[in-house]
């Protein structure tokens, strides 16, 4: 019989991992298409949370309206981010320059710059301290499952993450825009020859990925009850680690690694103080880079 | 001769500081196969990419069915009915054969799918397979089928025989003739001059970014200069 304590930690770890997974999906989607790391993804997450919070404070709307606001802001943020931080560096759209080192490094810095600007702007407008989410919007009503106590948020986050993964799978394999995203990811030059507007497809990728990031932000905000300008930083790093562990461009790989990460962190708090649990993610990153340079799920899988 | 599908006038293409094409003039008549011959690096692929809108023209004009298309974005040119089976095939190797064809159809849809699978039966057997797992000849057929999915009026074929076994090359050129017989005009770029001149109505020879010789294919087949340079004389 497993000690209920470990089951409890496992459950906590799973929901923690799911929040990382929500983040990692958008991150990986954008990487898969452009081969660039979008360092502003964490700020998109924060913007999603603040969009929800502002709406809650202003009109006390139903929860789905809060999520909808986060998705809308996420879409807008994704579009603007692509135009401001990525498009200016994409002067040529053949595969070599689209995935060149120069492109990668310049957008790495430009997206980092956007993330700093957004975070500071949020601090100027909202202040840097944590803002608490009104009690009635919190998704932490306890639910008892056998020996383990979960909260409603665990189920909601699990459900949303599963729905997003399934939705994304549907989008990428069954819809024209999804096929175009995969085509651009696979062969940008080939995409031009079949009449795909690569520019528009790249924007759509950012919009879809950022909507997922923003949804992750508002859900995590409602789950933990705290929203603040720097909230996207740590999940951003964790999502990055999950993406690298998963092999950089495999979405299922990133999700599995995000779950591994969440569970390991929550288990680790059994043995070390919780302040050290972040070391788990960094430890995994280093081990992955040393022993599995292609990631745990890299190489064999299709990009995106 | 009927009205031209494609008219290229004084086309110049510059890459960085270097001019690659120095004023190309070329016409493809409706229902014709026109071959552009020449060795590696003379600018044949640059010409094809400029026509498809992947490269910009720095000077000169390109008209497709009377409409100027120079410097239109590539995706708009495809939608007008000008498709290309490009050099290196550029298929989506991580996606299934069917997905490649669906992408080829684009907003026109899958109306041509059955006809393509009849024309290229090998693709029907491999419909669910990843395109990257096909043999070179099969990939070339997929590349051509993908370009035909939109029912183009003009098909650009860039080195369809490259890297293929002689038997497969013969098969591809038979298909090229069949495609023309079904009403698609073809602009063909080839190093394999012998095979190209066998199917072409007109041909042009490129050297160093210029067309140095042009005329009916039958005439070029007998031209001693062609025979020497491309048909088994000594190469320069």
From TrEMBL, chain A:
Keywords of this entry: Amino-acid transport, Cell inner membrane, Cell membrane, Membrane, Transmembrane, Transmembrane helix, Transport
Presence of keyword Transport: yes
- Family, per entry: Belongs to the binding-protein-dependent transport system permease family. LivHM subfamily.
Q: Which organism is it from?
A: Azospirillum isscasi
Q: Does the keyword Plastid apply?
A: no
Tell me where in or outside the cell this protein is found. Cell membrane
Name this protein carries in UniProt: Branched-chain amino acid ABC transporter permease
List membrane-spanning regions: 12-37, 44-60, 107-128, 148-172, 202-224, 279-299
InterPro entries per UniProt: ABC_transp_permease, BCAA_transport_permease
Any Pfam family hit: BPD_transp_2
Provide the topology term for how it sits in the membrane: Multi-pass membrane protein
TrEMBL record, chain B:
Known PANTHER family for this protein?
HIGH-AFFINITY BRANCHED-CHAIN AMINO ACID TRANSPORT ATP-BINDING PROTEIN LIVF (PTHR43820:SF4)
Q: Name one GO molecular function term.
A: ATP binding
- Family label: Belongs to the ABC transporter superfamily.
The lineage, from the top, is: Bacteria, Pseudomonadati, Pseudomonadota, Alphaproteobacteria, Rhodospirillales
Q: Mind listing the UniProt keywords for this protein, alphabetically?
A: Amino-acid transport, ATP-binding, Nucleotide-binding, Transport
CDD domains found in the cross-reference section: ABC_TM1139_LivF_branched
Q: What name appears for this protein in its UniProt entry?
A: ABC transporter ATP-binding protein
Name its species: Azospirillum isscasi
Q: Which InterPro entries match?
A: AAA+_ATPase, ABC_transporter-like_ATP-bd, ABC_transporter-like_CS, BCAA_Transport_ATP-bd_LivF, P-loop_NTPase
């Amino acid at each position: 019989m497993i000690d209920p304590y470990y089951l409890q930690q496992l459950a906590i770890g799973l929901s923690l991992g799911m929040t990382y997974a929500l983040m990692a999906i958008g991150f990986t989607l954008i990487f898969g298409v452009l081969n660039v790391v979008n360092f502003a993804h964490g700020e998109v997450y924060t913007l999603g949370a603040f969009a929800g919070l502002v709406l809650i404070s202003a009109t006390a709307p139903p929860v789905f309206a809060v999520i909808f606001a986060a998705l809308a802001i996420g879409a807008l943020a994704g579009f603007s981010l692509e135009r401001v931080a990525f498009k200016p560096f994409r002067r040529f759209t053949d595969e070599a320059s689209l995935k060149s080192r120069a492109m990668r490094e310049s957008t790495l810095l430009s997206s980092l710059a956007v993330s700093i600007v957004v975070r500071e702007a949020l601090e100027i407008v909202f202040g840097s301290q944590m803002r608490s989410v009104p009690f009635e919007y919190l998704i932490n009503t306890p639910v008892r499952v056998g020996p383990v106590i979960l909260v409603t948020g665990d189920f909601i986050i699990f459900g949303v993450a599963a729905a997003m993964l399934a939705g994304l799978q549907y989008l990428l394999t069954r819809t024209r825009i999804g096929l175009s995203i995969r085509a651009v990811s696979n062969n940008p030059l080939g995409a031009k020859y079949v009449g795909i507007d690569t520019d528009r497809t790249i924007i759509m990728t950012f919009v879809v990925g950022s909507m997922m990031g923003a949804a992750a932000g508002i859900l995590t905000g409602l789950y933990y009850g705290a929203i603040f300008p720097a909230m996207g930083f740590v999940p951003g790093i964790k999502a990055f680690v999950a993406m690298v562990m998963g092999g950089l461009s495999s979405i299922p790989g990133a999700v599995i690694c995000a779950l591994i990460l969440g569970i390991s962190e929550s288990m680790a708090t059994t043995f070390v103080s919780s302040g050290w649990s972040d070391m788990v993610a960094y430890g995994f990153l280093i081990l992955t880079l040393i022993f599995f340079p292609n990631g745990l799920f890299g190489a064999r899988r299709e990009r995106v | 001769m009927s009205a031209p599908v494609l008219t290229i006038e004084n086309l110049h293409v510059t890459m960085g500081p270097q001019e690659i094409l120095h004023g190309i003039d070329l016409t493809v008549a409706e229902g014709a196969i026109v071959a552009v011959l020449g060795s590696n690096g003379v600018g044949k692929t640059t010409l094809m990419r400029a026509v498809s809108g992947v490269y910009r023209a720095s000077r000169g004009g390109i008209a497709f069915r009377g409409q100027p298309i120079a410097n239109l974005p590539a995706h708009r040119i495809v939608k007008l009915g000008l498709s290309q089976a490009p050099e290196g095939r550029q298929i989506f190797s991580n996606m299934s054969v069917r997905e490649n064809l669906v992408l080829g159809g684009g907003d026109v849809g899958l109306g041509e799918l059955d006809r393509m699978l009849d024309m290229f039966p090998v693709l029907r057997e491999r419909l669910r397979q990843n395109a990257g797992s096909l043999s070179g000849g099969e990939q070339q057929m997929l590349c051509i089928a993908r370009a035909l999915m939109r029912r183009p009026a003009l098909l650009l074929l860039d080195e369809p025989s490259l890297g293929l076994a002689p038997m497969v090359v013969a098969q591809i050129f038979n298909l090229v003739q069949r495609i023309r017989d079904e009403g698609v005009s073809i602009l063909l770029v080839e190093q394999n001059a012998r095979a190209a001149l066998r199917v072409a109505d007109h041909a042009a020879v490129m050297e160093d970014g210029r067309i140095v010789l042009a005329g009916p294919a039958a005439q070029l087949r007998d031209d001693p200069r062609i025979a020497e340079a491309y048909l088994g004389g000594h190469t320069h």
